[in-house]
Amino acid sequence: MAATIIIVDDEPDLLDLLKLILTEKTDYRVLTTTDPYEALSWCREYSADVLISDLRMPQLEGIELLKLLKEQDVTIPFIIMTAYGTIESAVEAMRQGAFDYITKPFRKEQIIMTIRKALGKRQELLTQQESTDNG
Amino acid sequence: MGVLDWFRRKNRAAAEVGMAVFQRKYESFKRLLDANNDTLELMARLEAVAEGDFIFDMQFIRSRSQAILQKVGTIVEELNILGDNRYQALVDLYESLREKITQEIAAPVDTEIVPLVMPLSQVDRRHLHQVGGKNANLGELKNRLHVPTPEGFVITNAAFRLIIDENHLTERIRTFLDGLNLDNLEALSSQSRELQEAIRQAAIPPALQEEVAKHYQALAETLGYQPTLALRSSGIYEDQEYSFAGLFLTRLNVPFADFCTAYLEVLASQFNRRALVYLCQKRLVHREQAMSVGCLAMVPAVASGVLFTADPMGQRQGVMLVDAAWGLGPAVVDGTVTPDRFVLSKKPPIVLLEKHIHDKPVLLQGTKARGGLATVAVAPDQRRQPALTPEQLLTLGRYGLRLEEYFGEPLDIEFAVDPQGRLLIMQARPLLVESPSSEARLPAAVGEQEHVLIDGGMVACFGVAAGPVYLIQRDEDLAGFPEGAILVARHTSARYGMVLHKARGMVIDIGSATSHLAILAREFKVPAVVDTGVATTVLQPGQMITVDATHMRVYAGEVHALLEQAHKRTPSPIVASPMYAKLRRVMRWITPLNLVDPKLSDLTPENCKTLHDITRFAHQLGIKEMFDLAEKASQRDDIHSVKLKTSIPFNLHIIDLGGGIEASRRAKFVPPEAITSIPMRALWQGISHPDISWAGPIPIDMKGLYSVVSRSLTASTDHSDFWSRTFAIISYNYLNYSSRLGYHFATIDAYVSDIRNDNYITFRFKGGAADEVRRGRRVRFLGAVLEKLDFEVEVTGDLVVGRLWKYPRELMEEKLDMLGRLMGCARQRDMLMADDAIVDWYTEAFLAGNYRFEGSPQDTAGSPNQPPLP
User: Fold this and answer.
1) I need a surface site. Which of A125, B332, B564, B842 has the fewest CB within 10 A?
2) Residues 647 to 706 of B: which have CB under 8 A from any A CB?
3) What is the ipTM score, two decimals?
4) pLDDT per position as a tens digit, A9-47
5) How many other CB atoms are there within 10 angstroms of residue B480's CB atom?
């Protein structure tokens, strides 16, 4: 089954653009929202494989969303999108357990590659979890 | 003290002041150059992003635009220091561009502080988010451009929010929009009717009613009578990246007593079936929905129409098109009558090139009794009279030019003529201009065996598409429209826009390329031919056809040759996305360069239209100021602007800031041996290398020559001595070398001393005479060589920048020597760069010291690329 990618950003135009690119280049199911809380509930509802989030959002900071996600499900890799000049925050996000960060503006191939790596990580984490459950 | 002593002392004092002024101005010049380089790099990056490979957000557009604005601000300031404030006009231009850009990138303001109603006299583009695109543009016309427009007021988005909030509709609308489903048009229709009814039944809060009454009263006082109103919708996303062509309601001739009903009807129209389908098609459903309404004093128009400041089909260059008919505007737009068509030249002085006067049997006008509209017969002697006088056409043309220049893009302008014969502009919106590639204009490669079903009509959207015919005869047929079909119908009804997201092509019997449906077809990139006259009779339902809209032909079956050709030309949907549209809207004030190789006389602030123009202007004038300064300085003993005495055909002027030229050998002409500047000496060694030829033209391959000639034809050039001069500002450790040779521009900024940490070289090379591809090859050649020379290289378009830091002095000298050789070798080399493979050959040859490029693959005798022998 195609992987489910959830993207949250406070700019609808950016979401549209990302969705356009990902659905054109891949067969992922791409769900987008401007509401971080909705993204979080979608992660559970649609068994998301990757969550991509903006760093700065008026409703909830990306890092806070990351913390909430980790409480909910540790197997969903979290990719953070940052703006140029906010690398420190991105590094902080990595410290908090984000899988990777990507600095805007970024190339199409870059996000696809990052998602691919994140999906690899997701598989790894799921396998680990299964073996822990079984063990 | 003797008189002679007094003179000597006075001269010395003047010289010291002179040197201080010169050095201060030189510092300004350096800052100008720095800011110029930074600006060009920022612009080049912005252009690279706009090509369609990047994902970015509004924050990126904002921060980049602001960074560029700041740098250009520095440029303008420094140029004024250099030119003793002689460039004040540039400051004004910069300020106006800054305002336009700031408006484009402005974040939506907090809706809490937006008034419910605003007089039109206070509205402009800054209020875009509160009053919608249409009202904001109208305000801009009225208050910034002072173009005659109707008087009136605007009810903002805040009022809409207040109404739906107080009537408990907010949640209902959200739920409704979230559940929208395009697959079931029937259900969508009934839901749409219910929601519109709920809005029409809503109560208008007393606070809003009072505000409206107050503004209406003020309007009546201004006019001296109680006008009826035209209520025009102005959607939140309308007329920006989305056309919403013909989707919302406009109510004309509304008496104030009927205001509430009419206002609610207009508000409700944003949820009409067609608008909802458009919201889904454009993926705007999840956005906030709001509508502002412009309330304008009704103009009892005797004639109305539309002016396009460019041919929407991009087929005719340098013209403006006017459609006009008697009476009120809707008759022209909705096709009730065939309007008169006028063609105006765009280049001043505007002249009427063509007129096509049609029989206009009816007109739309307001009725006196209780508002309303009526279609009435035109007096027989008026039917075939032109709807506009020559004077009105010329005035209209002048407005068109002014507005297009102001908004920076082609426009679709609605106008009306009042009973006194005065022209009023009713609205201006961006005009989507189709531009088929030159390749697409070529005859299509179609075999003779292909069966042509239709030949002729009018292009509404270029392109090729194949699919089964789906005939629409009534609205009910829309519900069954299958994915991938070709829409065939009798008229260009805007209602058909509802299925355009599913349609692959469109062929229509009657209609114009300027109709709402045609606008929508272009927006959805659906290849379309209108006005074929016969589509519905010739084409059979279900029949497989290929529509070649570009050549206005319809073929039976699938014509694979055409479809393959078209596939290659399909633009990326990414570039067409709203985010990219936003970027392009901002960029139109930033990156276009109008001052392309200008004559010195064209270098005026008035000819600058963008920040790029300002940058170019300031850079060239900055250099000129430095030269002038240097020339003045050269009259004195202590400031040297000298010419290098050399056999190389070079106009190298040197300004020595101290220690750059041997003191004992200062004269008007100095020999190269007198140069003591470390970086200049090193560079000169390379420039004067015995194997480098600076004299005479180099052999040119014919294709290269053609590309140069065609560029010369489009860009006027000035071969005055000034621009071919090369100058160097030097000190013992410093070199700023600028050279404009032919069509390219090279600069070297270097500091070389024994303190390794201070050392740097920045090399920039831009432009060239040949076409983009060949220039690109030369840039790749330069980039490859620079990389081998350990430079950090950045190539953007035809700009190559190489940087090197913190090398020891000897190595820095070596690199400058090589740069001197490289500049000589790169001279006109773009014309020789006939193919990609040659780039590697040149790179290897240069690195091997073969500076004459002997044995080049292009030297082969009899090569078809060689010019004929004289």
Assistant:
1) B564
2) none
3) 0.90
4) 988 888 988 988 888 888 999 999 989 999 999 999 999
5) 11
